[in-house]
Amino acid sequence: MNKTIFASALVSISALATAQTATIDVNVANPLKGAKVQSTMYGLFFEDINYAADGGLYAEMVKNRSFEFPQSLMGWKVYGNVEVRTDDAPFSRNPHYVRLTSSGHPHKHTGLENEGFFGISAEKGKEYRFSVWARTLGSDAKLRIEIDNPASMGETQVVAQTDLTISGTKWTKYTATIKSSDNVQKGVLRIFLVGTDGADLEHISLFPADTWKGRENGLRADLAQALCDIHPGVFRFPGGCIVEGTDLNSRYQWKNSVGPVENRPINENRWHYTFPHRFFPDYYQSYGLGFYEFFLLSEDMGAEPLPVLSCGLACQFQNDSEDAHVCVDSLQAYIQDALDLIEFANGATTTKWGKLRADMGHPEPFNLKLIGIGNEQWGETYPKHLQPFVSAIRAAYPNIKIVGTSGPDSEGKQFDYLWPEMKKVGADLVDEHFYRPETWFLSQGNRYDNYDRKGPKVFAGEYACHGKGKKWNHYEASLLEAAFMTGLERNADVVHMATYAPLFAHVEGWQWRPDMIWYDNTRSVKTVSYYVQQLYATNKGTNVLPTTMNGKAVAGNLDQDGLFASAVYDAADGSYIVKVVNTSGHAKDVDIKLNGLKKKTISKCTLTLLYCNDGDAENTLDQPTRITPKTIDRQASNNVIKTQVPAQSFHVYRVQVK
C-alpha cells in the first residue's frame, strides 16, 4: 500500500467520532457450536485462458516444441537446409521432427529460431536448462545453442551460448545448461548446425533452472509461489470452458496430459477462437502442464484437488445443434474417463492407472475426494447427461463427492431449473458462476441466508466483480468482492467452496479480464483481488460466529449504510476473527462487541487493513505493491473494539483473549 494512503487511513481510524456509532455484535459464547467452516472454503480455480499454462504457469519457454501445431513450423524461423519429417519418429503421438543438414557452403548456416511466448526472456546471471531429443545421420553432429537479443546495439546479439555434441543414430535426450550474461525481454532461441554432419531434432525445450520445487518439467517459480501463499483449501482444474471445447474434439482430455511429456499430444485451445477482437491463432495446449502436474501442485499447496471433466456436451454457447454433443446412450467412454481418473489419483500401483501414476514418480495416492462433471451446461440435456456419471461413480467410488452446475447464470430461468435437478440427480455440490457488475455484488449480501440447508452444498466456482465501464482490476471491484464474501462466510453451512476467476493473465496475451495475477515473461503482480482472497483464506477460522447489527445480518442492507461483516472462531489458536467492509463513500465509527466472553478479556487485537482512497487504482507490473494489506496493533477495552472504518476499506480483526 502507498505510504501516504496508509497514513491517511490511520488518521481516519484514530479520528474522533463525528457521526452515530454503528454497533456490530459478535456472539462468542459458544464458538464451537457455530457452523463448521470447511477446509476447502477458499481456494483457486485454474483455467488455461490468457496464456495461463503455456506462456504462464508452465515454465516451458519454447513454443511448438515438437512441431505439432497445424502449421508445423509455427513459432519457428528456419534457415539453411531444414526439413520437417514424420518417418521413424521417436514419439507416436508427436510424430513430427526436423532434420538439419549442411547448408553446402562454409559461410551459410542451417538452423532454427524460436520466438517463444511473446519473446524468449532471460535475466542476467540466471541459468536455463536446454534439452532436445536428437540423433545423428551417421557421424557425430555439433549444435550451437544460443539465447539472442535481435534488438541488441552491442557487438553481439548473443546473451547465452553453449555447444552440444550429438552422437549415435539412436534417439537420445541431450541436455545443457546456459547462463545469461544480460537481460533480454524479446529474445529468441537459436540452434545452429555446426559443421557438415546433419542431425534430427525433436521436442526442443528450454526451462528456467529455478522452476518451482526444482522439477524438470516444472512450473514458473514466482507464479506457483503466489498460489501457494494464498494457502488455498481447494484447487479446481483444468478449467471451465476448455473442459467442454469449442467442439468435442477440442475438449480437454486428461489421458492425453499424462505419461511421458514428450509423448503428450497438443490440443487446440478453444479460447483462440472465442474472441476475434483479441485473437491469438497460435494458442495451443502442449499438455506439458497436465493432470499429474495439477495433482502435484494441489499436494504442494495443501489443497484438495478438484478435477473437472467433460459430460459429453460441447460448449453450448458455441453449439446450437444437438449433433454437436454425445447422446446420453453413447456416454460410456466419457464415464470410463471419469472412473479411470479416480483410479489414476487414488488407485493401487497394481491397477492400470495407479501404476501410471507410480511410473510418473508418485506411488502414493493423491487422495482425491472431489470430481466435477460438466462446466456451464444448462437445460434439460445436462441433468440427463449427468445422471449416468453419478450412478457409475457412486457404484464404484461411493465416497467421492460429485460437483454439478447451475449453469452460467447467477439467477433466472435456467438457474432456477437446474438447482432442483441437481438435488434430484444427487449432486453433492452445485457450482455457481457470477461475473457481475458493482450493483449485483452490493445486492447479494443475503444471497445464501435462505438456501435449503438440507440440499446440495454450494461451490461458488467462478466469480469476479466486472466494473461497469471499467472492466479491469481496480480497487473498488476488489472491495465489493470482499463484501460479498462476508455472505459466503456467514453461510458456511451451505457454502463449502469458493474460487475467484480467472486466475492468470499474460499482459500481452489476455482475452478476458479482470484476473487475479498478471505477468509478463519475467515479472508478476498480485492484484487487490488476490489480497482479498488471501486475507479470507488465511483467516477462515473453523466455526462461524453469529454477527449482527440491530439484530440483522450485517449484509449491506438499506439501514446499514454499506457495511458488511462476518466473524469466525479459529479453534487452532483460540482467536476470534472479525471481517468488516465499508463500501460507502464515508468513514464510519464502529463498535465491535464480543458478547459472551464471560470472565475472559481481550489480550491482543491486530488489524489488517486493505485501503485505498482511489477506487480506480490498481497494482501494476511497474507498481506491484501500490495497494497491499498492512497489519497494526489495536486497542480494546471491556471486550469492545472501538474503531473508525474508512470509506471503502476492508478490515480484518484478529482477537486473542485471556
Structure, described:
With 658 residues, the chain is an alpha/beta fold. Helix content is 19%, strand content 31%. It is built from twelve helices and 35 strands. The chain has an eight-stranded parallel β-barrel with strand order 2-14-17-18-19-20-21-22, surrounded by six helices. Strands 3, 6, 7, 9, 10 and 12 form a six-stranded antiparallel sheet that branches. β18 (370-373), α8 and β19 form a beta-alpha-beta unit. α6 (332-346) crosses α7 (352-359) and α11 (475-490) runs parallel beside α12. The protein is globular and about 90 Å long. The chain starts with a helix and ends with a strand.
Structural class: alpha/beta
Q: Can you tell me the overall shape?
A: globular
Main sheet: strands, sense, barrel: 8 strands, parallel, barrel
In whole angstroms, how far apart are the ends? Answer: 33 Å
Uncertain residue ranges: 11-18
- Strand fraction: 25-35%
What is the topological layout?
Blueprint: H1 3-14, E1 22-27, E2 42-45, E3 76-79, E4 81-85, E5 97-101, E6 110-114, E7 120-122, E8 127-136, E9 141-148, E10 158-166, E11 172-179, E12 184-194, E13 199-208, H2 221-230, E14 234-237, H3 241-244, E15 267-268, H4 271-274, E16 284-285, H5 291-301, E17 304-309, H6 332-346, H7 352-359, E18 370-373, H8 381-396, E19 401-405, H9 413-425, E20 429-436, H10 438-443, E21 457-465, H11 475-490, E22 495-500, E23 504-506, E24 517-519, E25 524-526, H12 528-537, E26 543-545, E27 547-549, E28 552-553, E29 563-570, E30 575-582, E31 588-595, E32 602-611, E33 630-634, E34 640-645, E35 649-657
Helix pairs in contact: 6-7, 8-9, 11-12
